[in-house]
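Postdoc handover notes: sequence design on the structure in folder B. Input tokens:
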């Protein structure tokens, strides 16, 4: 039997040649060399990346260190020029005063220029200011008529007509009373002058008739010099004043009507003239000024009415003539705070002196002082202190400045202008809330 694996066959030689056996180690060496080269390349790239990161971190740290040192190191003083010139250090106080000084000079020059412009247009500015005061007084009436359903234009027209009728009736009644008693007052004046002449002759002066006549002639000459113009020039001046008064009345009436009818539209147009970024502050400041003005006018009307009624009552008790005329004069004079009603009360004292003598004049003077004190220390501080925060010293200074700048019209508008400026200053300083348009409740107040 033969072996199943062919053991009976002759042995077969190995088919692998000696060249094939020698090539396998070379391939393995080449693969190993390639892997080593790749690993070295990766290690080089990682080393480069690490160096770049380290360099970036070092640069950032160096920059941060330089900035920190720059913040901690004080600034070096400037080096003097090589020529040897020495810079003069200005003291801080002098520098501060100089900075404020030129700014105040610019503000003063702008204010002076503005006053010059307003003075040139005085015939227009004063009536417009009076119209604003009247508007502030009667705007609640227009608001009430508008709430009843009337168009605002018709309501404004009715309010203007009502103001004209009230003022006209007051002036007509006072003028009629003065005209009716003018002759009696003239007779009393003549008697009073005769009494003064007799007192000069029989009193401590013991003046003679020639001396008295000389004094009277000098007084007449001074009055004539004060006039100093011919009758034709005086007529021309009176005509010019009458024309200005008529034009001013025309401007007052029309300005009042349009302020009442279209005041909101007019103010919106004024606000749009300002830069866009400042419109909100301009609008709020204007509304604050208007609220202050309306409160001042209402308080002044109440004070003026109390003054007029009180002095009229005293004059009626003492049987002083021209009671209504005195009341109207005191009412109008009270619109100039502190001094207006006092001057008007002095007229009442003079009328009492001429008509009924010294004793009645003294009683009239006492009555005027009593009314003035009650108003000055009771009613006026309560109303003006509650509605308008203006110090009495500021009131006096404002009136004096108004008289110097524009005479009687300046005294009339000085205090409300000061109150409005004070309110706007407090508003811009942030001491009051942002105002909005007047609500219906504020209009009714």
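Designed sequence:
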């Amino acid at each position: 039997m033969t072996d199943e694996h062919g053991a009976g066959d002759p042995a077969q030689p190995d088919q692998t040649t000696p060249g094939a056996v020698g090539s396998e180690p070379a391939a393995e060496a080449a693969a190993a060399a390639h892997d080593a080269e790749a690993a070295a390349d990766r290690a080089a790239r990682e080393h480069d990346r690490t160096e770049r990161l380290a360099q970036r971190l070092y640069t950032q740290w160096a920059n941060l260190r330089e900035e920190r040192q720059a913040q901690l190191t004080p600034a070096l003083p400037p080096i003097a020029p090589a020529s040897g010139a020495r810079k003069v250090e200005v003291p801080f106080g002098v520098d501060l005063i100089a900075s404020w000084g030129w700014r105040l000079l610019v503000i003063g020059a702008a204010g002076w220029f503005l006053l010059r412009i307003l003075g040139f247009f005085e015939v227009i500015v004063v009536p417009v200011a009076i119209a604003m005061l009247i508007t502030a007084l009667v705007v609640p009436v227009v608001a009430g008529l508008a709430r009843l359903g009337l168009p605002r234009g018709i309501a404004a027209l009715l309010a203007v007509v009502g103001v004209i009728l009230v003022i006209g009736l007051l002036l007509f009644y006072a003028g009629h009373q003065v005209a009716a008693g003018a002759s009696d007052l003239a007779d009393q004046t003549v008697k009073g002058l005769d009494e003064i002449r007799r007192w000069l002759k029989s009193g401590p002066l013991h003046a003679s008739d020639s001396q008295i006549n000389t004094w009277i002639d000098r007084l007449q000459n001074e009055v004539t010099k004060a006039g100093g113009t011919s009758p034709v020039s005086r007529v021309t001046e009176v005509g010019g004043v009458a024309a200005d008064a008529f034009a001013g009345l025309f401007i007052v009436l029309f300005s009042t009507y349009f302020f009442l009818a279209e005041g909101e539209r007019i103010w919106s147009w004024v606000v749009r003239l300002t830069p866009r970024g400042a419109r909100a502050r301009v609008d709020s400041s204007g509304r604050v000024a208007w609220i202050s003005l309306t409160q001042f006018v209402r308080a002044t009307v109440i004070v003026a009415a109390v003054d007029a009624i009180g002095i009229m009552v005293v004059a009626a008790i003492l049987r002083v003539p021209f009671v209504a005329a005195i009341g109207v004069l005191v009412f109008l004079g009270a619109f100039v705070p502190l001094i207006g009603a006092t001057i008007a009360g002095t007229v009442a004292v003079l009328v009492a002196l001429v008509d009924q003598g010294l004793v009645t004049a003294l009683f009239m003077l006492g009555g005027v002082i009593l009314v003035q004190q009650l108003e000055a220390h009771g009613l006026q501080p309560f109303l003006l202190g509650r509605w308008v925060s203006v110090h009495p010293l500021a009131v006096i200074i404002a009136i004096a400045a108004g008289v110097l700048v524009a005479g009687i019209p300046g005294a009339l508008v000085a205090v409300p202008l000061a109150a409005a400026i004070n309110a706007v200053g407090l508003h811009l300083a942030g001491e009051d809330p942002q105002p909005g348009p007047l609500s219906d409740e504020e209009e009714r107040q």
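Context for whoever picks this up: The longest helix spans residues 18-72. Don't rerun without checking with the PI first.
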